[in-house]
Model the fold of this input.
Amino acid sequence: MLGLASRTDPLWARAALADEDALLRDHAHLERKAAGHMITLMGQLPSGGERLLPAAREELEHFERVCAILHRRGVELGPDPGNPYVQELARVANQGLLDRVLRMGLVEARSYEHFSLLAEVATGEVRDLFASLKDSEAGHHALFVTIAMDHFPRERVRQRWSELAEAEARIVAKLVWGPRVH
Ligand SMILES: [Fe+2]
Ligand SMILES: [Fe+2]
Done:
């Protein structure tokens, strides 16, 4: 799916949904960081960085939607405890601009997969949230691949994507399931 090297066990979604409020807090911070990383990347690309602006705005809208649900539930966003998946991926994909772009594309692809699984199992507003956001994350995945192809030789992008996708799959396989988006 979307160039990922593994598929997540559908049972994962039940573990993630065992504590909806904690899942939503993690999700809110993920959207906030996605917007921030896009805004940072706009200032690092040699050209065409502003193409990321609509996607960055979408991530902020996603963040706002999750925050609205948290607020209705009387749940504080709280400080970001960090997400082990994103941290480990950043440690592995650390070879400059291409890795940064592909890493962001991988997170979007995995988010699409996980949002799809969550939408199948969740109910009510949580189901509606993940069902309505997943296609937008798939679009962001495509945008990052396009940006990588525009700035680096295609063969190098394909090669590095498959290396990082394998590394990402190993990271996902080792994660302890819990109330997180990844
Ligand atoms: Fe998003
Ligand atoms: Fe996204």
Observations:
- The chain has one domain: 18-174.
- Residues 18-174 form a domain with the Ferritin fold (CATH 1.20.1260.10).
- The mean pLDDT is 97.
- Residues 34, 59, 108, 137, 140 surround fe (ii) ion (ligand 2) (CB under 6 Å).
